[in-house]
Each structure stands twice: as C-alpha cells, then as structure tokens.
Amino acid sequence: MFHKNIKLVLAVLISAWAVYQFSQGNIMNGISILLFAGIFILFYFKNEFILLAFLQLRKQNFPGAQKWLNYIKNPEAALITKQQGYYNYLHGIMLSQTNITQAEKYLRKAVKIGLSMDHDLAMAKLQLAGIAMTKRRKREATNLMAEAKKLDKHGMLKEQIQMMKKQMQKI
Fold first, then answer.
1. pTM
2. Between 1 and 71, residue with greater pLDDT
3. Where does the sequence pass through the membrane (predicted)?
4. Does 5 share its domain with 62?
5. Are residues 58 and 35 in the same domain?
6. Which residues contact 112 (CB under 8 A, 6 or more apart)?
7. Residue 97, Cα to own-chain centre: how many angstroms?
8. Rounded to the nearest 10 degrees, how much is the dihedral formed by the CA atoms of 113, 116, 122, 128?
C-alpha cells in the first residue's frame, strides 16, 4: 500500500499527534492514536500484501495469493530484507505446482536472503530437495533434506521427509 519509508514517516507523525493529545490532557485520545501509529509500525515489519497472500495460500487459493503478490511492484525497494525472502518464498511455492525451474530460482533466492522462521526455511529446503530429486540430482536432494530435518525442530515435516526418502530410494 505505502512504501516502507512512508509507513515510518506516518508512524512518527501520528505519534507526534498522540504526544500533543497527551499534553492537552486527552489521555484516551492519545492512547488510541498511539495504537493507530502501531498499525503502521506493524505493517513496516509485516507487509500487508504478503500477509494477505499467506491467508489465500492457506486456503489453497493460488490465483488469489498471486493477485495479492502482484500488488507489490518493486519488492527490492518496497520491502525490507526478510519480507523479500517471504516474497520469493511465496512465489516459489506457487510456481512449484507448474514451473519447477522458476520455482527453484525463487526458492533459492528466498533461502539466500533468509526467512525469519525455521520451519519456513525447512519447508523451502524441502521444496528444493523435491525439485532436485525431480531433476535427478540425488546428492543435492539428500543434503537439502538433511538440512530441512535439522531445521524442523517440532517435527511438522517429518512425514514429508520420510516420504521423500522412500521416493529417493526408488531412484
């Protein structure tokens, strides 16, 4: 919606307005306005379009998620580093259904930039392992699966890793 720097400027201006309200004795107005400024700060760290794309992806609505991601015109300028990682991660997951070469490019870029959650990084590496296995690169797939297994601390991807190991034995 807004560029990342504009969000910070708006948060500062709204916070200054809240300080003015506090100085005038309007405590409840000041608190409400500070909460409003908090929304801009939240959206600085968590891009609203990426959040909406995640919600659509959760519903398995790939065209809807793609629509929200298309609203981000220049991700390098409009997003902070971690958001760029998630932008590429989402594109990689959606393209893994149709175009694995493009998906691999996006997922590698997401892993290189970095993701803030370990299970997201594990999922990206597991997707890359599946792509490597499809392209008959067994050693790379094995390494990526081992890395994904290390990152999966809660065992959420345990079944998928086991299934991929069984498929790899057939190759």
1. 0.82
2. 71
3. 33-55
4. no
5. no
6. none
7. 18
8. -20
